C-alpha cells in the first residue's frame, strides 16, 4: 500500500477517507454512529455489543439504537475501536474502509466487524483470540487501534496476561487480521501503555501511559499512584522503525496522560495530551535540536469539595479532540461534569470559547458541594433532557466532520463507573449532542437528541466510544 502523501491532485480513483483534513470538513453529514456498549462488570450476564445509532434528523428512527451486534463471549469490556483503513490509505484505490477493529480491553480478544455489507446492521467478520496473541507476542489488554498505510493494524496493549505493565507494547495484525508480531523493536517497549498517534512527515510516533492493568481493573486507588503503578510519561518512537528515541517525563503535572492527538495538519510537529489525574491539557512539540518538549497548556484547577472521598476533586480529563481545521480543542472533565471548547489558533495562548455542564458529581441534587476560596458553596446547574436527569459525567466525545455537532457518552470503564457513578451502572448510559458555534465559539445542548442506554432490551448498558462509518477526527491520520 502506498505510503507517499497525497495532496488530492490528479484525476485518479482514490482510496478511503480524504486527501486532507480540510477536504474532510466538506464530507457528507454523519447519519450513523457505531458505539461500543458494555455489560461486562455491570452485573448483567450478557455479552457486550456494538450499537448502531441513527443520527439523521430526517429519519423516523432519529436518536435511537437501530441495531445491536452482540459479541459471542461474556466479560470482554469492549472499549475503543479503529478502522482497517482510513485517510492514511487515501492514495491506494484498492483499499476500503470496511472493517471496524474492536479490541476487548479485559478479555484481550479483538473483534473484526464488517460495516460495509450493511452499514445499518454490521456483522462479525473475525475474532482474534487472546491465546494466539499471548503465544506470539506476550501482549494482553489491547486498547487503541490505528490502521497503517501498509495495510497492517497496530494496537497498543497495556500489559501482559498477568496484568503487569512491564509486558506492554504494540501488536501488529496483517491485512487478514492474523497476528504478525510486535511493532516496536526488541528492548524498546514503553514503561506503561495506553494511546498513540503517529505523524509520518516527522518520522515520529508518540504513546501515552495509563497504568498497570492489575491496578486499574480493580478500580482507582490513590495509593497505586504512589506505588508507581500509574504512568506520567510520553514515549517517543521513530516511525516506522519502532525504536524508542525519547521518554518525556511529564512529572506531577502529567499524571495519567491518556488520549493523545497531533494536530491534523500532517506537516505540524505539535499536539496535545490530556493528563487525567493532574487535569492538565499538555502541549508537546519538537524543539530545534529534534527532541520533544512539553508545557502545560490548559490547567483545570481541582475543586475544594465537601462530602466526597477527598477534600479536593480533580476534573479528570478523560477525553479530548481537535477539530479538523485545527482551530478548536474540546475536552471533558468527567468528575466535574463540564465540556469545554478552546480556540487554539494561537497554540501558546488557548482561549476558552465554550463551556456546558452535562453531569458530574457536583450537580444540583448531589450531596457533594464545591467550595470557593471565600467559603461560599455552589453546585452546577445541569438541565434535564426529554424529562431525563443526566447521569454520570461527560466522558468520550466525537465531533462531526464539519465541526458543528459534538456527541458525548458518559461511561469510562465499568469498574471506575461503579466506583464514582454507581447510578450510571444501575440506570445506564446516554448519548448527548452538543451544538457547536464554529464561527465565534460556543456550546449548547441539543434537547432534540437523547439516546437512552438505560432502556436497552437486555437492561441498562454502558456506552463508550463512537465512530462514524466514513471516519472521524479521532481515527483518521493523514500522511
UniProtKB/TrEMBL annotation:
Pfam families: SBP56. GO terms for molecular function: selenium binding. Keywords: Selenium. Belongs to the selenium-binding protein family. This is Selenium binding protein.
